[in-house]
Design brief:
The protein is an alpha/beta fold. It has three domains: about 190 residues, Rossmann fold (3-Layer(aba) Sandwich), CATH 3.40.50.880; about 190 residues, HUPs (Rossmann fold); about 100 residues, GMP Synthetase, Chain A, domain 3 (2-Layer Sandwich). It is about 35% helix and about 25% strand. The chain has 15 helices and 19 strands. Strands 2-1-3-4-9-8-7-5-6 form a nine-stranded mixed sheet, with helices on both faces. Strand 13, helix 11 and strand 14 form a beta-alpha-beta unit. Helix 7 packs across helix 12 and helix 14 packs antiparallel against helix 15. The structure holds xanthosine-5'-monophosphate (XMP).
């Protein structure tokens, strides 16, 4: 256990696969309780040793009735700590303690009506008798184990929630951790506070203390550490945390790969060197990256080429810096999950994760790996970073290369940069910087016919993309006012030579992603 967590109550979240455990851990943090994610093979002795206030069994993609599905050491039921089972965890508890789980033939996916059947349920006191919850299951618990009371049902799940108050074991088939479950956070809080008696003491300051302690542990007492700085909030927070941990053993490296937005390189220098007095190496490598990208049109190849070239540049800088062994990156949880860890489906290779070469010489330090963007912004504010850094919109590591469909050339980059600057300027003037998660321009690999000043044109369309989101895992297209869209289109066509058409992307995520590649 890290020193920071000793004075806090801890909840262990047992990971049964996919992305459920992280979201639960995040909701526990939101309730200001410290949480640690542990693998499903944790045994009762280890649980006792970690002395948690409660244990939560997460959801998972498997069926409890399939051979090889993850199970749990049943000794954990005897430890005497309150347990909450969610989805897969609910079914596991039912099966392990003598109930039954069967394939009903009718799955429930998405919004589902839940009927609370027990007025006295400790977890469901804030939930209306009929309420919408988020479900994702094929199997269902059809008989609760002896000693359990059924506290809620749905059409396809006869035991949608159950509780054994004597042993403090509670479980729910639905997902209280997702925003679509009405009062889901209250269900979790009832468990944490009323059932388990946790104290709400965990704050962004505690996250900082824990991260600083664990960075010190990982990088040891000597040697140089490099940090990849992009100018965005993630790497700025990561760098500041590491700086707090090891002081001027840290050197920040900003690689200008030539795929940045207008004015971005100057802004990064300005913020980090002048405002934060960080030791910064500015590598100007635009030609090198453009050469490597010459003729490359496949999105995943672009990402891998950029990811690899990035690391090579870092290794070179590391050799110039007394053989630094560690590389700090501001990788966040959504970057990890979308690059496909532990058998989760890969959506795209985020260049600070999936695009890394296997033969890398540097060990990675990723202090934000478990956090979501809004948590990182809270930590950044707490660390005293300037507002323009904390609230900067996310920008992908591979930069404009994944916003140019097809060939990445300096001419196409220049065109996109100008259009993108207009989008950002208009969003800023409209006061929408914080409301809109990201707003940017995309250059597709097509042309279209237009007419300007009585002349036929055959020019480039620009696609404007603006989305709202909480954590980039899902997103919706932003309902920008029509007059703003009109200003955007007029300005882009008037100010960017070669552009004769502007389209607005109205695709949510899923099915689209935020970036085009
Ligand atoms: P997508 O396009 O997958 O993007 O919906 C989700 C969020 O991640 C950003 N993004 C990246 N960030 N390296 C990063 O650091 C990357 O390779 C990368 N690709 C996408 C994207 O801008 C959005 O905020």
């Amino acid at each position: 256990m890290t020193p920071a967590s000793e004075s806090h109550d801890t909840v262990l979240v047992v990971d049964f696969g996919a992305q459920y455990a992280q979201l639960i851990a995040r909701r526990v943090r939101e309730a200001r309780v410290h949480s640690e994610i542990v693998p499903a093979d944790i045994d009762a002795a280890e649980v006792r040793a970690r002395n948690p206030r409660a244990v939560i069994f997460s959801g998972g993609p498997a069926s409890v009735n399939v051979d090889g599905a993850p199970s749990i050491d049943t000794g954990i039921y005897e430890v005497g700590v309150p347990i909450l089972g969610i989805c897969y965890g609910h079914q596991l508890i039912a099966r392990d303690l003598g109930g039954s789980v069967n394939r009903s033939g009718i799955g429930e996916y998405g919004r589902t009506e839940l009927e609370v059947t027990s007025a006295g349920s400790a977890l469901l006191v804030d939930v209306a008798q009929r309420t919408d919850v988020w479900m994702s299951h094929a199997d269902a618990v059809d008989a609760a184990p002896p000693g359990f009371e059924v506290t809620a049902t749905t059409a396809a799940a006869p035991v949608a929630a159950m509780a054994d108050a004597t042993r403090s074991i509670h479980s729910v088939q639905f997902h209280p951790e997702v925003v679509h479950t009405e009062r889901g956070q209250e269900v979790l809080k009832r468990f944490l506070f009323d059932v388990a008696g946790c104290r709400p003491t965990w704050t962004p300051t505690s996250i900082i203390e824990e991260a600083v302690a664990s960075v010190r542990e990982v990088v040891g007492g000597e040697g140089k550490v490099l940090c990849a700085l992009s100018g965005g909030v993630d790497s700025a927070v990561a760098a500041t945390l590491v700086h707090k941990a090891i002081g001027d053993r840290l050197t920040c490296v900003f690689v200008d790969h030539g795929l940045l937005r207008q004015g971005e390189a100057d802004q990064v220098e300005e913020t980090f060197v002048r405002n934060l007095a960080v030791d910064l190496v500015h590598v100007k490598a635009a030609d090198r990256f453009l050469e490597l990208l010459d003729g490359v049109t496949d999105p995943e190849r672009k990402r891998h080429i950029i990811g690899e070239a990035f690391i090579r540049v870092f290794e070179e800088v590391a050799r110039d810096h007394q053989d630094a062994r560690f590389l700090v990156q501001g990788t966040l949880y959504p970057d990890v999950i979308e690059s496909g860890p532990k058998g989760a489906a890969r959506i795209k290779s985020h260049h600070n994760v999936g695009g890394l070469p296997d033969d890398m010489d540097l060990d990675l330090v990723e202090p934000l790996r478990e956090l979501f963007k809004d948590e990182v912004r809270q930590v950044g504010t707490e660390l005293g970073l300037p507002e323009e850094v904390v609230w900067r919109q996310p920008f992908p590591g591979p930069g404009l290369a994944v916003r140019i469909v097809g060939d990445v050339t300096s001419e196409r980059l220049e065109l996109l940069r100008k259009a993108d600057a207009v989008v950002r300027d208009e969003i800023h003037k409209a006061g929408l910087d914080r409301e809109v998660w990201q707003a940017f321009a995309v250059l597709p690999a097509i042309r279209s016919v237009g007419v300007q000043g009585d002349e036929r044109t055959y020019g480039h369309p620009i696609i404007v993309r603006a989305v709202s989101s909480d954590d980039a895992m899902t997103a919706d297209w932003a309902r920008l006012p029509y007059d703003l869209l009109e200003r955007l289109a007029n300005r882009i066509i008037n100010e960017v030579p070669g552009v004769n058409r502007v389209a607005y992307d109205i695709t949510s995520k899923p099915p689209g992603t935020i970036e085009w590649e």
